[in-house]
Design a protein that fits this description.
With 245 residues, the protein is an alpha/beta fold. The chain has one domain: Undecaprenyl pyrophosphate synthetase, CATH 3.40.1180. It contains eight helices and six strands. It has helices spanning 3-6, 23-29, 34-55, 74-97, 113-125, 142-158, 169-173, 221-232; strands at 15-19, 59-66, 100-105, 132-140, 186-189, 208-211. Helix 5 (113-125) links the parallel strand 3 and strand 4 (132-140). The longest helix has 24 residues, at 74-97. The radius of gyration is 19 Å and the shape is globular. It binds 3-methylbut-3-enyl trihydrogen diphosphate (2 copies) and magnesium ion (MG).
């Protein structure tokens, strides 16, 4: 039986988040510059989105550029920013035709006007689509997001918009960039690194984690199916014991 046929379509994660890692190492293996790997990574996004949508995933969140990634060599950062502008503009029509709703989460204000314009245009154009939500975490880091939320909550307490005893899980979630999305059931990280790198720290409290050695540009639909099958073989207890489930 193929991997696809083994998937239980009634238990597909609604929300999958991916740390797309390994572009640079993949490029190096081919004797190419790192940007060659980032370019190839865009192709993988296209394929993965298609496979996720076909299988019934409703939210796909992709870690695209972290706030810490600004610390890379300038030519790499410039190349990535250029690639982002180009890719959003090239892919938008096709994504819109496929009824994909696009979102960007992260600190927009530090990005170039050109990139911000592309992002805002894409979000606005696709705002009535509901086939699948494609969320790019771009200039995102979880500690930045949580810090921001704390500042906003404090302001609202100070201005008597909320009282301290109203602060709970749900309220905090509503101050995060992800307030419109359910928490991911599955997080995938490629490239054999076993860390979270400042991604969705709050949201992954009960997420199943799947790590693969595959580098992002060579990640295939089969690798996605493997991750989903791995997820489907887990027992999600949420603090309870097996007998209670
Ligand atoms: C992930 O690939 C893409 C970004 C972080 C922008 P990397 O560029 O981190 O690739 P490696 O980890 O160096 O191989
Ligand atoms: C995480 O990858 C960020 C993205 C995939 C955008 P990194 O390559 O930046 O992570 P570290 O530095 O290895 O932890
Ligand atoms: Mg990396």
């Amino acid at each position: 039986m193929s991997l696809f046929d083994q998937i239980n379509l009634n238990n597909v994660p609604k929300h999958i988040a991916i740390i797309m890692d390994g572009n640079g190492r993949w490029a190096k293996k081919q004797g190419e510059f790192r940007l060659f790997g980032h370019n190839a990574g865009v192709e993988t996004i296209r394929e993965t989105l298609k496979a996720a949508e076909e299988i019934g995933v409703k939210y796909l969140t992709l870690y695209t550029f972290s706030i810490e990634n600004w610390n890379r060599p300038k030519d790499e950062v410039d190349g990535i920013m250029e690639l982002l502008v180009q890719s959003i503009s090239n892919e938008l029509e096709d994504l819109h035709a496929k009824k994909v709703r696009m979102w960007f989460i992260g600190n927009q204000s530090q990005l170039s006007k050109e990139l911000q314009d592309e992002m805002n245009f894409a979000m606005d154009k696709t705002k009535n689509n509901n086939n699948i939500h494609l969320i790019f975490a771009l200039n995102y880091s979880s500690r930045w997001e949580i810090t921001n939320a704390i500042k906003e909550i404090s302001k609202d307490v100070k201005n008597n918009k909320i009282s301290i005893d109203k602060i709970d899980d749900e309220l905090i979630s509503n101050y995060l960039c992800t307030k419109h999305f359910p928490d991911p059931e599955l997080l995938i990280r490629t490239s054999g690194e076993y860390r979270i790198s400042n991604f969705l720290l709050w949201q992954i409290a009960y997420t199943e984690l799947h790590f693969t050695d595959v580098l992002w540009p060579e990640f295939t639909n089969e690798d996605l199916y493997k991750a989903i099958l791995d997820y489907q073989n887990r027992e999600r207890r949420f603090g309870k014991i097996t007998e209670q489930l």
